[in-house]
Amino acid sequence: MPLRDHFRSPVNDTHSWDELHGQWPGEMVRHLTTILPPGYRAGPRVHLGSSFEVDIGTFESDAADPDRAADAGGGGTATATAAATAALAPTLTVEADLSDPDEYEVRIYDAERGRTLVAVVEIVSPSNKDRPDTRAQFVGKVIGLLQQGVCVSLVDLVSVRSANLYAELLDLLGRADPQLAPTPPPLYAITLRGRKPARRRRHRLDAWFYPMVVGEPLPTLPIWLTPDLCVMLPLETSYGETCRVLGIA
């Protein structure tokens, strides 16, 4: 099934994008179980993030209430001295977005090595790329996985956000990909892996980049399980099955 635009009419008139994002990891796992070598296991992970906010005004009011302070101390009469109160005062208090990001992904493990994580397929959500801070958070997560030797694949169908997370990752590393010029495409799939060649001090970043276009077939991604072993994951297969199950024409 060719790629649909899940964020605009006519598809989003009847189906929300998160239906696809929620179902697709399971269909990927279903396909991976048929192609993974013995000893490797795949599992879906869907985590819906939420904002974490603290009402500073309420907290400060509660802390200043002597009756509450007494209750917190189990009914005792001891109170904090002015010096102790000053010592506990923060040196900075600011508003901060400590949001918990959405995660729609498939994780692949080497079960024979203590369930070691070897590869991750991330389906990018709108919240992963809507603001500079959330994009930086997502890119930082990808770099952290690569540093651990985990192969990372990104599948970005978010047509209503123009940012390209692969381009921002390269920019952070001080590198560029000619395939992204002059303007990085908003829809794409990519596999990334980090490796450290023998007798070299610096790591290498390998990338397999595939721009995607609405109305065209989805690509097949290499998923590296070890430096010398990979399986080929045809996104078209699991995507088509997901759309069929959900009734997306």
Notable characteristics:
alpha+beta; 2 domains; 249 residues; globular
Summarize the SSE layout with pairings:
Elements: H1 11-14, H2 17-35, E1 40-47, H3 56-64, H4 66-72, H5 82-88, E2 103-110, E3 116-123, H6 132-147, E4 151-156, H7 165-173, E5 188-195, E6 204-211, E7 220-226, E8 229-234, H8 235-246
Parallel strand pairs: 3-4
Antiparallel strand pairs: 1-2, 2-3, 4-5, 5-6, 7-8
Helix pairs in contact: 2-8, 6-7
Task: Write a brief structural summary.
This protein is of the alpha+beta class.
Description:
By secondary structure, the protein is an alpha+beta fold. It folds into 2 domains: 11-51 and 98-246, no CATH class; 56-88, no CATH class. The chain is built from 8 helices and 8 strands. The strands form 2 sheets. Strands 1-2-3-4-5-6 form a 6-stranded mixed beta sheet, with helices on both faces. A two-stranded antiparallel ribbon has the order 7-8. Helix 2 crosses helix 8 (235-246) and helix 6 (132-147) packs across helix 7. The protein is globular and about 70 Å long. It starts with 10 loop residues before the first helix and ends with a helix. The relative contact order is 0.18.
